[in-house]
Amino acid sequence: MMARTHDLAAITAYGYVVLTQPVRMVTVTTALIAVVANQIGGIAPDIDQPTAPFWRNLPVGGYLGKLIDKMLGGHRFITHSLIGLAIFGLGFMALLNLFHPIMPAVDIHIVWWAFIIGMISHLIMDTFTKEGVPWLLPIPFKFGLPPIKSLRVTTGKWVEKSIFVGLLAVDLWYCSSHYTQLVNVFHHIR
Question: Phi/psi at 76 (nearest 5 deg)?
Answer without folding.
Answer: 60, 50
